[in-house]
Amino acid sequence: MNNTQSFVVFTLDNQKFALHLGAVEKIAQAAEIIPLPKAPEIVMGVINVQGRVVPVVNIRRRFQLPEHDINVKDHFIVCRTNQINVAILVDAVLDIIECSEKDIIEKSNILTDIEYIEGVVKSADGMILIHDLNKFLSNKESNIINEVIKDSDKLLKAKEISKSQTKPKTSEKKKKALKKRD
């Protein structure tokens, strides 16, 4: 029996890339990215994904593609590396495909000097570069991102606590009016 693998196919500047479907948690419409001070240069900022702070990494920078401003048609692919959850900003998510092993060319056979590419899928409408998400961030970058996010999360929680502890004062006039009403 032929083994198959599933991939999420996306584009950056009309080039097709793929991620293993198992690494993808969610695909979402692009939204505002909140800057993250002290983060590595590869991090564009963070987004809120169902109450979690998720760093947005700049995949264009890693692939040495021209950068552009976020467009309403762009998407985030929220995925998991071996060390951290990240979101990558892509131009479009095209499809989920299944490929047999014979349709995948291993990196060692063609692209030996590109460390972020795992291989290439041959398809009817061209070649699709398979992105190796686990090699995208170095251990050092992942650790720095985790620390910066923890610090930011602590700061946000401290602000929320201080907001909840500072209740607006009720004027004496309002207190009397409320008492009369009861």
Q: Helix coverage percent of residues?
A: 10-25%
The number of helical elements comes to 3
In the CATH scheme, the class would be Mainly Beta
Count of discrete structural domains? 1
How do the helices and strands follow one another from N- to C-terminus? EEEEEHEEEEEEHH
Mean pLDDT: 80
Structural class: alpha+beta
**How is the main sheet built?**
6 strands, mixed
Globular, elongated, flat, extended or rod-shaped: what is the shape?
globular
Could you give me the name of the CATH homologous superfamily? CheA-289, Domain 4
How far apart are the termini?
78 Å
Q: According to CATH, what is the topology?
A: OB fold (Dihydrolipoamide Acetyltransferase, E2P)
Strand fraction equals 35-45%
Order the strands across the largest sheet as they lie in space: 8-1-2-11-10-9
The CATH architecture is Beta Barrel
Question: How many β-strand runs?
Answer: 11
Low-confidence stretches: 161-170
In summary, what is this structure?
The chain has 182 residues and is α+β, with helices and mostly antiparallel strands. Helices cover 23% and strands 39% of the residues.
